[in-house]
Amino acid sequence: MQIAIMGLGRMGANMARRLLRGGHEVVAYNRSPGPVQELVAEGAIGATSAQDVVDKLRAPRVVWLMVPAGDVTEHQLQTFKSLLSPGDILIDGGNSNYRDTMRRAADLQDTGIHFVDVGTSGGVWGLTEGYSMMIGGEVDVVEHLRPIFETLAPAADKGWGRTGPHGAGHFVKMVHNGIEYGMMQAYAEGFEIMKKKTDLELKVDEIAEIWRYGSVVRSWLLDLTAAAFAEDTELVDIAPWVADSGEGRWTVQEAIDLDVPSPVITLALMMRFVSRQTDEDSYAAKVLAVMRNQFGGHAIKKEV
Question: Which of 94, 180, 198, 230 is the most buried (most CB within 10 A)?
């Protein structure tokens, strides 16, 4: 199947690579040419502009946007809206707010251009492990895209599915990330408790390895934490500063709007704010920072 990937950050580029390896024809487009040239060397068709993308795709065209949520996504959607034709498909695979997604779908409805929102999880590991995809859109359009989803997923019948109409994919991904905040916070606090119990001489790297097998708290997040500890259990060069990319805030706001108590997710979000307002050398905050780096390649602030 032919598809264009626009936005070749680490995740977008790896998605393009997985599609190429799955036998799909990929048109690659990025604002800077370097990532495009790398993918061309691996078999992709390079494009130099949005118009060039459209010219190189066969109808019905499929364009997958992997760009930051907000103004960048809005600009690219409007650009392709002006270039695509009825029957073509635009996919937003970023972390857009689901309310923006619903508005954008309605905006495209009269044009005949189909819109699909795909909440995508997998981070920098998706190339080898596959991506989890939470999809919102029309049933027949999602079914048309099945070969792409089956290739990107961990298995053809696992890790992806249509969760509902337009906006549902991004809503479910938002909640997914909110849950992620709570899980990460619990791990970080637990490891800090053990780190502070100096009289027992606990080794958190060894404990993480023990928990990875058979334990009820084993998970991929724990695997990644163990990998970080294998490099440095003290995390001496890591600043205790933890960013948030928005989805946790949106999840908490939805919980408030829906009268759903969500203390774990809310407090996990608040602890990230605390990390940016205190000089305390929090080991838990350092663990959170390295976890984000391990699964998503997110930048880490270094101690000065």
Answer: 94
